[in-house]
Amino acid sequence: MDNDELKEIYEKYGDKLRLLYKHIKNKYIFNIIVRWGKLWDGKFFALNSAINVYEMIFIYKLSRQTNALNILEIGCATGVSGMILADSIGKTLVQNPESSGILTSIDPYQQTQWKSFGKHNIDNVILPYKRHGINLSHNLVEVTFDPALKQMIDNNIKYDMILIDGAHNYKDVLYDIKHSNKLIKNGGIIVLDDVRHYDVAK
């Protein structure tokens, strides 16, 4: 992307980009959002499945305000939500360096459909924190949601925050909500994305 293209983007989306950087001061996230993708595996990989800037700020602030350190996202795709949540955990850990934090992402299609692009992006957000001795990690679960969630319940794992953004048909969304209720800590938060989709709204 050349300077003229970047200038055009800033002219068109400047207000949103400034708002993004005001709330989420992370250079990697900002640069990939400005370009709406990056060169990956020899070609440009676009963020063609991602939350918008306002949603990014919302889940970031929600995570920071609740000091969430153990977060589950159901669905990873290009890793936009994951990057935001990982950065939020990292910033909370900077203020609590004796603690540890983990983002767990369930995505059975991360390698096949998304070419591990989401994992790559999340890892790039986490790396600077780890270099500074922050105990932050990412656990990618590449199996279907059904056995993954059941195993977490069987292992009595509890999360501070869960973002549901996987399949969008009614049956699967309801399944994710019911199982998330068994995985969330008392006082934890479950966030449901794409609530304007017909089946999700239902």
Total beta-strand segments: 7
In which range does the helix fraction lie? 40-55%
- Overall pLDDT metric: 93
Counted by DSSP, the helix tally is: 8
What is the CA-based Rg, rounded? 17 Å
SSE string: HHEEHEHEHEHEHEH
Low-confidence stretches: none
Q: Give, in spatial order, the strands making up the sheet with the most strands.
A: 5-4-3-6-7
Distance between the termini: 41 Å
Q: What is the global morphology?
A: globular
Q: DSSP strand (E) fraction?
A: 15-25%
Sheet with the most strands? 5 strands, parallel
Structural commentary:
It is a single chain. By secondary structure, the protein is α/β, with parallel strands linked by helices. 50% of the residues lie in helices and 21% in strands. The protein is built from 8 helices and 7 strands. It has helices at residues 3-23, 27-35, 53-65, 80-95, 117-131, 145-154, 170-183, 198-201, and strands spanning 37-40, 43-46, 70-74, 100-106, 135-141, 159-164, 184-192. The strands form 2 sheets. A 5-stranded parallel beta sheet has the order 5-4-3-6-7, sandwiched between helices. Helix 1 packs across helix 2 (27-35), helix 3 packs parallel to helix 4 (80-95) and helix 6 (145-154) runs parallel beside helix 7 (170-183). The radius of gyration is 17 Å and the shape is globular. The model has no long low-confidence stretch (mean pLDDT 93).
